[in-house]
Amino acid sequence: MTAFSTTxxxxxxxxxxxRAQLAALSPEALRESDRALFDAFLxxxxxxxxxxxxxxxxxxxxxxxxxxxxxxxxARGKRVGLPRMLPERGMExxxxxxxxxxxxxxxxxxxxxxxxxxxxxxxIQLALVPSVCYDREGYRLGFxxxxxxxxxxxxSGLAVGLCxxxxxxxxxxxxxxxxxxxxxxxxxxxxxx
Length: 193
What we know:
two-stranded antiparallel sheet
């Protein structure tokens, strides 16, 4: 890193390095990691207590594949919202309905259709926030769009991140707009702020 590097450049370099590291993991290693991460998430008392949760539909090979987690929670009677991207880097949360097919959005993301019921942020007790990685203080290295940082700005519920242990960082590069989560879960442990 040179004296002229910006935080954004540091983030881009780290993002590329970690994506390559994650891409080198075997499908079996990814499945085992997902299973341990989801078990840790489902064991949180806050998950059991929440009526409405905001999750993401993981992109295979890039994020934990959360489809099974979304379906498990829905089968347990939880209202599960998924993100829907809006113009100008906005985001809203729409209800996942198992009988309604998701639509393909930019960046390879699957999201509910515009006709799915909109969930008010104040009704969401827990949000599962995607990332490339987290650090031990709950800061995340996202995918570079800032959607979740903006959304988390006035979120009053519990924000949780899943992070594969192999990419957990001591400290990720940070900027003033970066928001952290309350709890980071890895396959082996948890880090709370």
